[in-house]
TrEMBL record:
Keyword terms, alphabetized: Signal
Originating organism: Agrobacterium rubi
Upper classification of the organism: Bacteria, Pseudomonadati, Pseudomonadota, Alphaproteobacteria, Hyphomicrobiales
Protein name, entry field: DUF4864 domain-containing protein
Leader sequence segment: 1-19
Amino acid sequence: MKTLICSLLLLVLAGSAMARDLSEAERTSLHGQIERFDAAFKASDFATITGTVPPKIFEAIATNSGVTADQLRGALATQMQMILASVKFLKFEMDQKNIDYEQTASGEPYVLIPTLTLMETEGKKIEARSYTLGLIDGGQWYLLRVDDGKQIGILREVYPDFADEKLPAGSMKEVE
């Protein structure tokens, strides 16, 4: 029994030792990625927008859909153009002042960025409040919407560290 308790204590301490804060370079890189995404969104630059999604996520979606990652990117760009034809984006904001800095159980850092989208469609204004997940893969920051159940499922499949992470739900409502 004493051996079991010591082993459990070592596991807990090892987990704590693996946790780490973001370096200044990682913070700077994160803010740069957010700025690039924001500019790309406002300019309807689909190549840059899709480039902020982790490649492993694209590969998993493409594989599950029976297409290549390039075919998926092309289809996504087409879908985005169709959406933009019927939806007018009035405001888009990723709140860099209120980023929630987190770590997975294994100590991998990630962030949750409060995100606001105000859009108009069919004469109605819709406000969407959600979070954008920022994660590091291969030394680079990637961004991913985490208010869609399917996307969260793929995230957890591709990045098992997120299997037990609580990700906040988004909301959508009509506004004046």
